[in-house]
Amino acid sequence: MNKPIFVWIKSLKFSANLPTANCELISSNSLVNAITSAEIARNCQASHGFAQMILSHDYQGNTVICAIKAISTKCTEQQYIQMVNSVHDHRDILVGRFLRLLSYVTLNELQPFVDFILNKDEILKLFMNSEASYKHHHSYKGGLFEHSIEVAEMTYQNARHLGHSNVECQTGLIAALFHDIGKIYPALNTNNVKYCPGPHESYAFALLAKPLGELGTSNSRIFSMLSDLLAVKPYGHKTRYAIEHILKLADRTSAESNFAKSQFKALPADYYFTKVNGDLIYRLNNQ
């Protein structure tokens, strides 16, 4: 069966005479007409909006929807299209994963962070198209967005699997998603959009000042945890929250995995090791 993809449902209408439904959707920035069963259409409980689907084709070449999972989002259709058009290489899969992450944020106290990133067009565009580092990990256009999503996904899912509370899982997600957003701060104030080293943890507080201020007013305990997770850690820092270990491990895992894979990018598929700065890095490929 095909892999799930993210789409925007423009309309989902039931057939008058048949146990089927017709769907008009946006996939990979293209308008697609598809058919599905009335049962699948009813069970998804959504006639429009953001969703995850599994698509196939019948023997006549028609696009067939095999499964639909509606995903709640504050994003509008116009915003979704803008994001897909703005993200580097039109990687709509990253936009989909990003919006799915935001859908996990259900606490009222954390909603200002969702509103902030969806409604600050210049910040969102830079966030989606900046580099995560100069020469180490995700050091390409769109790398910051990819890295942030990876860290947030791992932090949230691992925290859930380890039995952390809902508030800790969601706070960890927000911290992970925005832990490197300060890296775009220099670009907001200069004409240089290339990666610029700097105290990005401090810059993050400057960018997130408004939602952080609202959080501090509504819930001081969540504010304290989120601020602690986002802050730069001095030498000898003693971890106060267990979820910080999860976030730090996710950050390092994303960075080191991407760095290792990038070292093999220009090498033939049968190369199973390479040397970087005197150290050997190994990999196993499918045989």
Could you walk me through the main structural features you see in this protein, from its secondary elements to its overall organization?
This protein has helices at 38-44, 77-86, 92-103, 111-119, 121-129, 143-161, 166-177, 185-189, 200-207, 209-218, 220-230, 243-264, and strands spanning 5-14, 20-27, 30-37, 49-57, 63-70, 273-276, 279-282. The chain is α+β, with helices and mostly antiparallel strands. The strands form 2 sheets. The chain has a 5-stranded mixed β-barrel with strand order 1-2-3-5-4. It has a two-stranded antiparallel ribbon with strand order 6-7. The longest helix is centred in the C-terminal third of the chain and has 22 residues, at 243-264. The radius of gyration is 21 Å and the shape is globular. The mean pLDDT is 91.
